Amino acid sequence: MIIMAEILDLVKVKLTSNKNFEDITYSKITNYDCLEIPKEKLIETSKILKSDAEFDQLIDVVGVDRFTKANRFEVIYNLWSNIHKARIFLRVKLDSKNPEVETLCKTWPSANWLEREAYDMFGIVFLNHPDLRRIYMMEEFQYYPLRKDYPLMGIPGAVELPKK
Amino acid sequence: MEQENPLIESAKSQHKSNVKQSKILQALETEDVRAYFEDALENQLVLNMGPQHPATHGVLRLLVSLDGETVVKAVPDVGYLHRGYEKLAENITYHEFIPHTDRLDYLSPPANNVGYAMAVEKLLKIEAPRRAQYIRTICCELARIASHLVWMGSMAMDVGALTVFLWGFREREKILDILDVLTGVRFTTSYTRIGGLALDISDEAIGMIKKFLNEFTQNLNDCRKLIERNKIFVNRCENVGFISKEDALAIGLTGPNLRASGVKRDLRKDEPYLVYSELDFEVPVYNEGDTLARYYVRIKELYESQKLIFQCLDKLPAGPIDAHNTKQVLPKKEKVYSKMEELISDFMIVNFGNLPEKGAEAYFAIEAAKGELGFYIISNGTGYPFRLKIHSPSFSNIQSLPIMLKGCLISDIVAIIGGLDPVMGECDK
Description:
Strand order of the largest sheet of chain B: 1-2-3
Low-confidence stretches of chain A: none
Distance between the termini of chain A: 63 Å
Structural class of chain A: alpha/beta
Strand content of chain B: 5-15%
Number of strands of chain B: 8
CATH superfamily of one domain in chain A: NADH:ubiquinone oxidoreductase Nqo5 subunit
Shape of chain A: elongated
Strand content of chain A: 25-35%
Radius of gyration of chain B: 25 Å
Helix content of chain A: 10-25%
Low-confidence stretches of chain B: none
Shape of chain B: globular
CATH superfamily of chain B: Cytochrome-c3 Hydrogenase, chain B
Largest sheet of chain A: 5 strands, mixed
Number of strands of chain A: 7
CATH topology of one domain in chain A: Beta Polymerase, domain 2
Helix content of chain B: 40-55%
CATH class of chain B: Mainly Alpha
CATH architecture of chain B: Orthogonal Bundle
Mean pLDDT of chain B: 87
Strand order of the largest sheet of chain A: 1-2-5-4-3
Number of helices of chain B: 21
Number of helices of chain A: 3
Oligomer: heterodimer
Largest sheet of chain B: 3 strands, antiparallel
């Protein structure tokens, strides 16, 4: 656990000494560290985390719909380092009207399906994604079911059934 | 010179717009696949496998582009078992979601119960007492043995060995009988409660577990004798479905599949939860990265699980099984019927749910039989979760299929899917 704290300190120093990364904020999710990043700096930060801090696996991408007026959507990345046995979370806030963020497929290929899931459920568009299709719902489905304004019982007629 | 007929031209363009190629076919026919085939019409064959195929272990659908019998590219299509559990979870209380976790990885329900309950406990900042933690560890390991036995049987059946299937299921049946006595239900256990367990472990259950484990080594060795020296089985698994260490890390594999590629990643050792830090066990790792290595990792894990349960039974402490917290933990039924305070707290928890802090967030992951099973919960202070994200290991494991399938023969597809051990209930959520 001491090693993990040291690694995180290194990352913090590396990020904060650089003027580009002044607007990164730190928080805690239970016992894990969480970095909140403006979405323009996501790619740069992810590269630093992969090459210098050796976070070699992207475990999960969590989409969140806060249902607020500004910054309605959020994406949370769950990173794991097999070398330091440490976990860190990245949080990116997105606009309400057109939620868009750069894909992390080039840094961690596992982002491919994880981001497709967030796109399918929330309509968050991942720019430059190699294969951005729906993953759970059918291709012709037009809504984003995990958004808070999508009713629990579904929308009648959302799925076209074959005619009798 | 022949003049192009405008009528034919318009008909052609209309035909083009009418024939809408589905997006999954477009994903299959990428640049590299098109470049591979000199004359696509002569060589290429697109094969649809599933969703109703006995070897895909559920409702996995694969679209395979074939050159003769060699796979050029494969595109998995998931979602045929999507039930929208994350949406459902946002509209029920924390306790009401426990039965739904049984249906995620339906081969090891107790492990899912434990993972979910511990994530909620992290959110509420409570902890189950020692005895409950030991019993939870026993449940997790029993679930791992049951899941691996089903995997061993069905995978051997996929490559043609039918007897192991029957012998493996016979052993698993004994675990279901144990769960029947231990939890009251054979299959969908819903055994954990937030902050504790539904029932205490009985002497009868302990006796059954000990009897099962004492016979287990002999029975497992019998199964192994049938296939490990069997030339057909070994030839169909060796060097099939190879994935390198770098690829396995990049694509996000977890669990036994990753350990078969030479990465020692086991959350029981790396982020010890429950009582694993006090127990003595090894993490088997193989470097080959093929289906046979995945087989051996799981077989070795079965022996380790057996060792772990023996240790837990030896060390099992006395004491309560529920955390002492009247606001968050359901009281026992006999007290609800006879005491006023307990009746009130039971009424409050059942009607309004557990109330975490406003804006609290928690992530908790366990090493389930298939890999890292994680729950990310965000609360807004009400009795319902604001967002509950399930990270299912099978989802990431199936994502690696295109890499493993590339260049293999069509008959190997079955062995590779079997060796990967996907469960669609968990993948599709």
